[in-house]
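Researcher: Quick test of sequence recovery. Tokens follow.
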């Protein structure tokens, strides 16, 4: 995953965690187009 794409997802997930009170795993479940490897990469960056 390109760095710019990962940064967008990391920031989006962090924002949603703060505003919606969900866990990162719950939020990433909403993004069905992401592969499991991409989700793991985003989780490790958070």
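Model:
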């Amino acid at each position: 995953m390109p760095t710019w794409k990962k940064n967008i997802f990391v920031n989006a997930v962090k924002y949603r965690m703060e505003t919606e009170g969900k866990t990162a795993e719950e939020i990433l479940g909403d993004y069905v187009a992401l592969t499991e490897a991409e989700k793991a990469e985003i989780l490790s960056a958070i």
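The two ends are 15 Å apart (CA to CA).
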